[in-house]
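Form 12-C: Joint structure prediction
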Amino acid sequence: MYIGIDIGGTGIQMGIVNEMGSVLNKYEIKTNKELSFEEQLNKIVDAIYHMLDMSCYSISDIHAIGAGVPGLIDLTTGYILKCTNIGWFNVPFKSRLEEQMNCSVYIDNDANAAALAESIAGSSHGFATSVMMTLGTGIGSGIIIDGKIWRGSHCIGSELGHIILVADGIPCSCGNKGCLERYCSASAIIRMAREELLHRPESMIIESAGSFDKINAQIIIDCAKQNDPVATDIFQQYVHYLSMAVANVINLLDPDIIVLGGGVSNAGSYLLNAVQSSVTDFVVNKSSAIPKIAIASLGSEAGIIGAAMLGRKISV
Amino acid sequence: MYIGIDIGGTGIQMGIVNEMGSVLNKYEIKTNKELSFEEQLNKIVDAIYHMLDMSCYSISDIHAIGAGVPGLIDLTTGYILKCTNIGWFNVPFKSRLEEQMNCSVYIDNDANAAALAESIAGSSHGFATSVMMTLGTGIGSGIIIDGKIWRGSHCIGSELGHIILVADGIPCSCGNKGCLERYCSASAIIRMAREELLHRPESMIIESAGSFDKINAQIIIDCAKQNDPVATDIFQQYVHYLSMAVANVINLLDPDIIVLGGGVSNAGSYLLNAVQSSVTDFVVNKSSAIPKIAIASLGSEAGIIGAAMLGRKISV
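Section 2 - Result
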């Protein structure tokens, strides 16, 4: 058995996960940025023991603990260098949790963990090489090559969200301009909607949302599904950019499969069909088969499963 | 010993290459698109025997023959599906040359071969993971992962030149718009110069070239080196895009090293220094070390060496 911990800005989810990537027990605590690292760590340790108590397992049944962190990690030292969402900077997460639990601990970026989870127990299961794009507030991405997380040579890769798609385009939170994330994330479709609605307020989007400020990706896509012309145009504009992003991955890496996860992927086959039909326009070698494109299947459990499997992959 | 054949639109270069990637003998014949495939193949066979005769080796010393082709290849069948430069479409190159030479033949895309050559005997020697960009009329690229050519799952990857860098940008010969090749190739810097010179004809570029039509990348860069203000602006504009392209590779793949080859790379350290100082602006994780960037060192022999080493890599 393995324990996976998915550290997020609002909650810390954890689960007991078997070798196949199935979650057997789950537990969640709230994230509290007010607490010091040691206080937060103690809460995580207490929660792990509480979860074990509720299950039929003890810590001696646990082969390894893994944690997925939305931030920058030093894999060699096990330090979390920067995790803004929880207020951790340069904290010795791996060594401190190992001391407290007397169990091996593995940490990685949460996007890498999600990609690993999908490749072990989700949509990319059975495919050696996959790329996962998490279409949320930003864009997370993970690359799996021959079943293993591809971390690059300096652990600075897999940042698909910050590949430049529109040179000198919209300013990004990272300091650059025209990053893919500014055109393909949930935030991007909301921006597109707000821009479009200024000129076309007749859309059902604002009424569905209640107010201009409450527009979200799901509402826009739901309105597009109901054939609202404005929402349909916004969705097509979004798919245009997302298809370019997917095609960029194909033209460079050509993996077996590309998995779309995150909030926007809740649109399911409506999104998938649109991307599949548009992506071939941007693939340069049109005569060959292209990678499969799929919607992620593990939902919010991907973080727990992937974190748990960090220990399995490294220890095997 | 190995034989490498570099098939190009104007000439077919070949060489006898040792296990370390050193070229011991070379020979070249002209490409003649008027000839049928079988006639052209016979000329290649004759040239191989002629080269062997001139050397101290015989065909029995040759472990394998490799060919780099500027076109689309089916690696499983050994057919060259499309090689416009030489007029070959769907020809059984591998099997026919094997029959004629009674020796194993390996074929691959010429950009993959060049990347392999640099990783065995050139600038990326000693680095497990590298990406080579050939900055010529177009942009060729090859990815080496753990010492081996990365071909992707459907042999349609490594097309860095056709990643979209400027969504809905300048139309590309591939049918898409805004491909990286339109902003980072030798053709791109010539286009930038022609556009700029319409407004700023005082530049020394036109005089150096003799006429507007004879402007090439080397002349533009030579004028920039001599501090011609217009040429300097054009060069900086080019470096701006090329640095984004290099950063895209870093942000996604994070290889050990990125090698710049092709005609534009003849600018040497003048280009390298400019790219190195600009690329960090576009790398998202600025706190870590980044991949090394280098100029290719094998020049026009890369094609022969890489082709020869196709057999070494596969047969080892």
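Section 3 - Comments
The longest strand of chain A covers residues 23-30. Chain A touches chain B through 49 residues (CB under 8 Å).
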